[in-house]
């Protein structure tokens, strides 16, 4: 460490020690602050030290050493007024050799500051908000050295905690002034799950609360930091396995490279070490450097550099959670009020940990229409707004939020007028849902008397209640992996058996199609690891679903036994995911038939009949349907994965969202051939996926000959209304001719046809 840095570090440590003693004393708050400014001025060899604190929305001079004492509690500056107001408003640092030369300089004659030329000030920050300003001045015209300003920042950070401990500023005053400053905001995003929700902001990964800022033993703090850095670097090295974060794109590889660069950046680590040397705890040292970086972000005009600093902010938060041991999500703390969850992204298992009674909406900085967290949110009826950039910068924990994903918007700290308009739209939405509910017992029959099976997708025990609520014909896709995702250990056969039995009993006479466990990709399980240690560059195309199940046949055997026994005396429908070639289906079916034979031999309870089906998600399977269809009882087209494979477009990657086109002529031609081939073979064919849950695309599929849709419960009403207003025989020639022509604006033409013929598509 350079000698000048050592001097600044010793000065900062001395100030922190003396500040701690002062604030722990029994003297009153004003006396404490009077001592604090004298300590800082003496240690930094300045002529003046002053503390301004935010009070009732303005900055008030609370204590000074060097200015006139009669100015204390008299001099008041609004945010943005003068040098002090500018520092607080912009969360910036000022270091001036001649204060009067700055365009924001304002002379306060009552202070007697005209005798001082140099000025340096830093914001006193608490929870990313300026609560005051710490400033030093000198009669000599000079810039304070960078190391002196850094020492000032370190002191300001500890001072923030001490000020609050002394009760000089209360949280409510701070919150109200912040709200007044930022006001109501609107952020736009992409509708991932339709709906509206009102609640208070909760961060999925809560901000770490720093309990102690002053270190008792510097070496112990350094060891804690070293251990956290080692764990963080280990996590970064394994991040490529986390499909939610990386996907398959070059952009994600660049992000990984940036993360690695920062994780191993000795300059970043050295700055944290120096902050520890000054007397801070490991947590406070990380936060101290983080504050400095945030201030740099505000000054940077280059968006690329700003993005890199955002990456560093993300890593700093990770490091802070590791060193503090505060690793849990908000789900573990519990939701106490109606909540809107804020996250960069999240996995389906994480979502399932939250109390659905309290969770009213989700806002993601990333997210895609067909990511598994979106699918789960849709299944449980939680509105989701995705790709809301920089939402973390505009919202604070506890802010009132209104999510209207139908409009693609989230309102932060809404005005009464916005709340009233939201309430009106929400009432209309409930009225529309009531209209759909009134159709519950009506069959899904087109105007020309074609019966369409409407089934729901499910994955949890509670989801079965949606059968009665919607009047659906059954469960066309029960995702059995949800039981695995919410468990910390591999669910035993008895537990699986109870679940499957309960689902079938609750469904009554209505069919339930169980999809065998589909894990891998973004549905990884900590207790099932890839035997090959090679990192998958393309997890969606990798070791998952039926491939994993056939390799780990014990997993599939246990599930087969549980399903067959759980369906004792009933009809069992089993479907295998991600079949690419007929032999995979044959091997999976053989596992079930062997287990069924064993149960029969040992006179165990079992299903009275088993129907076997395959999902068509991999395009290659379409080329061998002539071989596969005679062996199937039913076929289900899984459009979510199929379309991303078909277009070579990662469904989780935002830049490719426009390439994920449900009404592309190429896709509709492909699906038309599959539907025609299955119908000709007498094999029931259906769709389970996002494509079937939208009125316009569902209308196109029905026109192409599809007779079964398995969709989310909330989509049953709108789809049934569309079906009952559609004349399929009149529409079928139109859609087939449109698909054959290769028109590029199929969606527009379908909307015009629906409007002309009175089809309900909204």
Write structural notes for this entry.
This protein is α/β, with parallel strands linked by helices and 762 residues long. The chain folds into four domains: 3-166, Beta-Lactamase, CATH 3.30.450; 185-206 and 331-431, 3-Layer(bba) Sandwich (Glucose Oxidase, domain 1); 218-324, Enzyme I, Chain A, domain 2; 440-526 and 540-757, TIM Barrel. The chain has 29 helices and 22 strands. Strands 7-14-13-9-10-11-12-8 form an eight-stranded mixed beta sheet. Strand 21, helix 26 (695-703) and strand 22 (708-711) form a beta-alpha-beta unit. The longest helix is centred in the first third of the chain and has 22 residues, at 3-24. It starts with a helix and ends in a 6-residue tail after the last helix. The model is unreliable at 1-7, 175-181 and 240-252 (pLDDT under 50).
Q: Could you give a quick summary of the protein structure above?
A:
InterPro entries: GAF (IPR003018), GAF-like_dom_sf (IPR029016), PEP-util_enz_mobile_dom (IPR008279), PEP-utilizing_PTS_enzyme (IPR050499), PEP_util_C (IPR000121), Phosphohistidine_dom_sf (IPR036637), PTS_EI-like (IPR006318), PTS_EIN (IPR008731). This protein is of the alpha/beta class and 762 residues long. The chain has 29 helices and 22 strands.
Q: What is the topology?
A:
Elements: H1 3-24, H2 29-43, E1 48-55, E2 58-65, E3 76-78, H3 82-90, E4 94-96, E5 118-126, E6 129-138, H4 146-165, H5 171-182, E7 185-188, E8 190-193, E9 196-203, H6 218-237, H7 243-246, H8 250-263, H9 266-277, H10 282-299, H11 303-324, H12 330-333, E10 339-343, H13 348-352, E11 359-364, H14 372-379, E12 384-386, H15 391-394, E13 400-404, E14 409-412, H16 416-437, E15 453-458, H17 465-470, E16 475-479, H18 481-485, H19 493-507, E17 512-515, H20 545-551, H21 553-566, E18 571-576, H22 582-601, E19 609-616, H23 625-628, E20 634-637, H24 639-647, H25 665-680, E21 684-688, H26 695-703, E22 708-711, H27 713-724, H28 728-741, H29 746-756
Parallel strand pairs: 9-10, 10-11, 11-12, 15-16, 15-22, 16-17, 17-18, 18-19, 19-20, 20-21, 21-22
Antiparallel strand pairs: 1-2, 1-6, 2-3, 4-5, 5-6, 7-14, 8-12, 9-13, 13-14
